Amino acid sequence: MTFGFCFMDKKNKSKVILNYALNTLIIILVFIIAYFLFSMFSSKEKDSQEKITIKTSKDTSVTTSQDTTVAKFITVEVLNGAGESKLAYRVSEFLKRQTGVDVLKYDNFRTDDIQQTIVQSRDGDIQKAHKIAKIIGVEESRVNIVKGNELEAEVRIIVGKDFRRLKMDL
Length: 170
Description:
Blueprint (H helix, E strand, L loop, with lengths): L1 H5 L3 H40 L2 E4 L4 E4 L1 H8 L2 E6 L6 H13 L2 E7 L9 E4 L4 H11 L6 E3 L9 E5 L11
Parallel strand pairs: 3-4, 3-7, 5-6
Antiparallel strand pairs: 1-2, 5-7
């Protein structure tokens, strides 16, 4: 075979070399993709088995991986009731970063004079609201049920002027 390669014309030689180069490149890319997929799935398994520490500027609280895993499946809406610029966005980013909560919407509340942060269950499952309240440091007495429709988030957070006292590093 190599003997025949020597007698090929220049045009055919360049095609063969190009084919070898492209095939080698494809093989290298397949290995790189396989490595990234492996590392992505192995890190998820590792994260689900560890305890997750949430450090804030106020204090340090430890949330078990079970609490955080459950929180990942809760849909949340964050509303700014304190009048602080971009507060709903910052709370949304905190929740996504620390717990992986699915924030469907963040916006301003209809008024900006809410004194204390409120966590509302929109689907009737108060346990979901309690989990979110625990993560951000809202007292159980400020968690309630307010029925919404099925298109809305399961939990609504109305951030009040007390946001600096909550367990969030904003």
